[in-house]
Amino acid sequence: MMKTRMVFFVVALALVVGLLTLGMAPAAAPPEKGGAFPDIRLPVPTDEAQKRYLGLEGDKPFRIPEVKAQVVIVEVFNTY
Question: Residue 58 falls within a domain, yes or no?
């Protein structure tokens, strides 16, 4: 009985750790100078004025090239 509980605990722990790390993307190297910005999707703002400012339509996530502008400046903060 004790062995069964221990096996169940180990399997449950492995499952929880696996699910928690599933959403973590591996660290990618930063883009090279003059290189392309990574193809990431961003959430659409809920504020209609912000959506109009960016030239976005709909509620699906968008990519940087979809912003209606000649230049897009992306500021990256280090959160560590």
Answer: yes
| Dist CA 36 CA 64 (whole Å) | 11
What's the confidence (pLDDT) of residue 12?
A: 63
**Residue 45: closest CA among 34, 57, 33:** 57
Range of the domain at 58: 37-74
For 13, 22, 46, the CA distances from 10, given in Å and listed in that order, are 5, 18, 42
Domain count, the chain: 1
pLDDT in tens, 67-80: 888 888 888 777 76
- What is the structure's pLDDT at 21? 61
